[in-house]
Amino acid sequence: MKTLEEVQDIQEESAKLYVEQVFEKVKQRNPNEQEFHQAVKEVLESLIPVLTKNPTYMEQAVVERIVEPERMIVFRVPWVDDQGKAHVNRGFRVQFNSAIGPYKGGLRFHPSVNGSIIKFLGFEQIFKNSLTGQPIGGGKGGADFDPKGKSDNEIMRFCQSFMKELSKHIGPHTDVPAGDIGVGAKEIGYMFGEYKKIRGTFEAGVLTGKAIGYGGSLGRTEATGYGTVYFVDEMLKANGLSFADANVVVSGSGNVSIYAMEKAIEFGAKVVACSDSSGYIYDENGIDLQTIKQLKEVDNKRIHEYVAIHPNATFVEDHTKIWSVACDIALPCATQNELDKTAAEQLVANQVKAVGEGANMPSTLEAIDVFHENNVLFAPAKAANAGGVAVSSLEMAQNSARLSWTFEEVDAKLQAIMKDIYHNSVKASEEYGVPGNLVVGSNIAGFVKVADAMIAQGVI
């Protein structure tokens, strides 16, 4: 008769084999989609403890179902530039999982957008949205359109064309897109106007990230950056650390980066470096955030202009070298896979204490291993980056109730959500035998809620 330990070993091996088989099928069905493969691999490997303990998830084929989108929509987006020349871009929307609510996830306009990136983002969104505690499923979308260098009229015409097709697949109770890289309040406004014209009705809850004047939420602009810092702050405090007097490096200088910097500075940190695609700036006296806001949010200029205003600062053309700057806390807030193994090793050599992911999947799997092996506190994106979609869900709630909350009310709710995500992730990591591993903890905490809902609803 086998001992309990032997039975558990057999169950664990069975879970590992199951995960390997599911992942191999994902690769076969989705060839050459490296970003999607990476996202799936990270989650599946994290789920081995929960599958070992709860084989029902394997018996009900929950994992096979959760890695397969419920729907993937690909469409052409024709538009005309200011010179009258016609262009055609490709649009995407992946409706990945609706077990706990309508699909929810941003739209990204960037030349790099393809099926793999949209699927990786949509897959991550399932668990991120689940972690918020809000009733929202996972989705994502976008187009390989580059808004940089385009006039407002060109962007408007593109957004209107994009919405002509997208409008067939979204709605306040079906799928609620928001913004992402390349899609801000301006783009959301153009799309909302076109949707309203097509439908002939004012459905405020169909898009989030709207301007305040027609159903947007106070605090939404700041939410992702603030949320990242709220999560990291909770992680630091639990380990006897804080932002106070810490040197912080933040990659990027867009919306997430700016408001992560703002909140970190408010918490007493000194942000010494930030970047854009042209390079990074280092200011040993601390980045002047108002200058960054002026350059990026008003003047739409490149980051190197900062040194003309602050000559004591330094500009380095290679933005990937930002992780060579010594810091106590690193906040990658730019884009996926920006922080690789070499960068992680450099951060560790410079005695970094914590890393918090403000962007979607900014660290490679090898980089995450380096942080764990060297006991660096690590806040994974699907947990730390969840503030944006959390406040988007709060915007949906305000739209449904036809009311608006103050900035302070929204911010208080955001802080509570981020604290809950941290503690639920810690609890799951401890329950499944990997205390302190927030990658595993957040994946399991997000998965269990969705998986249980899928089982309760039958094989659908």
Automatic annotation (TrEMBL):
What EC class is this? oxidoreductase
Keywords of the record: Oxidoreductase
Q: What is its EC number?
A: 1.4.1.4
Any idea what this protein is called?
A: NADP-specific glutamate dehydrogenase
- Name the source's superkingdom: Bacteria
Give a yes or no for keyword Oxidoreductase in this entry.
Answer: yes
Organism, as annotated: Gracilibacillus pellucidus
